[in-house]
Amino acid sequence: MTLDDKLGQMTQIEKDSLVPRSDLATHRIGSVLSGGDSTVSPNNAQTWADTYDSLQRTALGTPLGIPVIYGIDAVHGHNAVRGATIFPHNIGLGATRDPALVQRIGRAVAEEMAGTGIDWDFAPCLCVARDDRWGRTYESFGEKPELPTSMATFVTGLQGPTLGADPASVLATAKHYIGDGGTTGGVDQGNTQLTEAELRAVHLPPFQEAVRRGVGSVMLSYSSWNGVRSHAHKYLVTDVLKGELGFTGFVVSDWAAVDQLDGQSGFTGAEITTAVNAGVDMVMVPYDYKKFLTLLRGEVSAGRISQARVDDANRRILTKKFQLGLFERPLTDRSYTSGVGSAAHRAIAREAVRESQVLLKNDGGILPLAKGAKLFVAGKSADDIGNQSGGWTVGWQGRSGPVTEGTTILQGIRAAVTDPATVTHDRYGNGIDGSYTAAVAVVGETPYAEGRGDRPNGMGLDQEDLSTLARLKASGVPVVVVLVSGRPLDIAAQLPDWKALLAAWLPGTEGNGVSDVLFGDHAPTGKLPMTWMRSASQQPINDGDGKSPLFPYGHGLTYGATPDPDPDPEPTPSACTAQFRTIASWSGGYQAEVTVKNTGTGPLTGWNVAWDLGGSTVSSLWNGSLTVSAGRATVRNTAHNGALSPGATAAFGFTANGPTGTPATQCAGS
Ligand code: GLC
Questions:
Q1: Is 145 in contact with 206 (CB distance < 8 Å)?
Q2: Which atom of ligand 1 is nearest to the CA of 35?
Q3: 595 versus 309: which is more confidently predicted?
């Protein structure tokens, strides 16, 4: 291989950036991708397969005839392809607690991809979403590492027991390494501020499992760890992932992520060197490949990227191409093309939808509904394939409306009842009266992806949903809410008006899986993969953090069980925590600040914090009132602190003479 052959293998470009197509051969480009909005026309499996084969034939025309590897985000089915089966997004799959099912889904996705030739899936996302304000929460299987870890079976589904074991095997990608779901405030591509021990405990286990399962590629995260971008982090990528975990596949950067390293737009030779030397083997450029190759060649020629690093990257990439069988089977296996969107795959998807439903409330056992009931169905997502599929569906952001073929939740309801004429539908609830057995309101979120889905300013229902629900409530008819959303929403205030609440997540094309549960053809078995907040001000809220949720991680009712003893759990008594921080210390004294946080569910009108002074004496104190007895200090709130709302904080400080220590503080609320 010449140097140009090798540098080309480290280059991944967007299909639509290739002008002229012959550049694929001229520049020895090793990989092509379709980003979220990259498509073909007409958008069907046949056209995708023809496009893939045409690109591959160009690549095979090079002197060495090294095939390209083509990547795409098939994150909940082969979702770029119109007519493909769209499965529930990962948050719903996490609710199933069924790793074997997730492996079967991976296999079905691989078969639909194989039918279009595309051989590399940028999935699964093994992110551990810790703050539900994050726009990618729905791409996470759950908030506790053991849940995404268990769902790494998706890797085996995609690749097979060994990569390339059969013609439908596709390369899987564990992403995004590392800590994408742990950023402060749930800011997409933000900063994950954790100790190394916390980072390893929460965010590393899913990648360890994926590596154990032989995942062929790992995609890095845009996010930073304590201020250092993952794409620049040699310790995390080379020492931990490749060294300690023994990852032998190849590392790919995220879309134009290298451009972000110096904080300026565009990419430079220095940024390329930083990323490649950190351990990136293939750069998702994705557009200006000529500039990229010129800069990369310059960095190697200058010795800033060693030949050994180039060879290591090529060895990793080519090994996966060989194992995948690309050299033996470079073109589409058309025997799989007719299977795109097949009834068999849709049956698996419907099963996954059923198992992903989480029944959160069921007052008086109103569910399951009788198939002879007179029902009124409302809500913006009752009859909307786009809403029930969410982002990454025939377009990066997804969209409302008939984006692809499938069954809406309303269609599923009408197919399930004895006589469809007993089901009335109006999106806004207009026309409802007291004659109906029940109203089913299908509400929640419209599609989004990545940072556009970040919700730093509130996580409640939108005004349309609230108006529809008010109209239904006014009729006096019992209301069953089906929530179509990519995350838990802030609905505690509305919950008392609902007789039942079913979290449907983002079910995809098989909406009849929801009606299977509504009418009891399948009793709900789903369990919450994320703690359900009582208020958005509690975010981040996770199992074991001492906060009081509306519904805890793992919650999920079924039918025939004893009715929920407390369907609208009352707020728990005021609770608080106190965080002690030494601001300064000197010989013989120190200054400290204590932050009090309302971890309860109601306003905290008073608090007190007590701790052992450890022999020191408080010489001055601000923003609190102090009493000392038997060597223990107790500080109470002052009148001007006012009441603390749930999640809010207040701080007091003091100066003391004597030893510092870090006392265990106790906080009591009132
Ligand atoms: C996006 C996403 C990543 C995806 C890649 C290619 O920005 O962060 O998950 O695989 O670009 O579409």
A1: yes
A2: 12
A3: 309
User: Six-digit token pair at 516?
Assistant: 């299977």
Ligand 1 atom 3: residue of nearest CA: 254
Cis bond upstream, residue 524 (ω within 30)? no
End-to-end CA distance of the chain: 73
Tell me whether strands 438-444 and 375-378 are parallel, antiparallel or unpaired: parallel
The residue among 659 and 491 whose pLDDT is bigger is: 491
Kindly report each contact of residues 541-547 with a partner whose C-beta sits within 8 Å and lies 24 or more positions away, as own/partner: 541/132, 542/130, 542/143, 542/144, 543/143, 543/144, 546/575, 546/577, 546/599, 547/599
| Distance of CA 412 from the midpoint of ligand 1 (Å) | 32
User: Which structure tokens are listed for 389?
Assistant: 């599929």
Q: What is the DSSP string of 88-126?
A: PPHHHHHHHT-HHHHHHHHHHHHHHHHTTT--EE---B-
Q: Output the pLDDT for position 613.
A: 83
CA distance 613 to 230: 42
Among 122, 137, 138, 448, the mutation site with the greatest number of ligand 1 atoms within 8 A of its Cβ is 122
Which run of H or E residues covers position 501? strand 500-503
Q: Token match 């220095």: residue? A: 270
Give the side-chain half-sphere CA count within 13 A for 106. Answer: 30
Determine if the pTM surpasses 0.90: no
569 pLDDT exceeds 70? Answer: no
Give the pLDDT confidence score for residue 153 in this predicted structure. Answer: 98
Number of H helices, E strands in the chain: 18, 25
Distance CA 161, CA 214 (A): 9
- Domains of the chain as residue ranges with CATH: 3-335 (3.20.20.300), 343-538 (3.40.50.1700), 576-669 (2.60.40.290)
CA of 174 to the centre of ligand 1 (A): 12
Give the single-character DSSP code of 518: H
Q: Find the 455 Cα to ligand 1 centroid distance in Å.
A: 20
CB neighbours of residue 171 within 10 Å: 27
Token pair, residue 259, equals 């451009």
- Kindly tell me if the per-residue pLDDT of 564 is higher than 80: no
Contact by Cβ (8 Å): 552, 386: no
Of 24-38, 107-121, 484-498, 586-600, give the lowest mean pLDDT range: 586-600
What crossing angle do the helices spanning 343-356 and 99-114 adopt, rounded to 10°? 150
Sequence-separated (6 or more) residues with CB below 8 Å from residue 585: 591, 660
Tokens representing 161 are: 């027991």
Contact 425, 378 (CB under 8 A): yes
Q: Over the stretch 422-467, which tens digit does the pLDDT of each residue have?
A: 999 999 999 999 999 999 999 999 999 999 999 999 999 999 999 9
User: Mean of the per-residue pLDDT values for the chain?
Assistant: 94
Q: CA-CA distance, 388 to 503, in Å (whole number)?
A: 12
Residue 652 CB-half CA count within 13 A: 23
Three-state secondary-structure class, residue 634? strand
The residue whose CB lies within 8 Å of the most ligand 1 atoms, and thus the one to mutate among 14, 33, 219, is: 219
pLDDT tens, position by position, 245-296:
999 999 999 999 999 999 999 999 999 999 999 999 999 999 999 999 999 9
Structure tokens at 455: 């919700």
**In the predicted model, is pLDDT for residue 654 greater than 80?**
yes
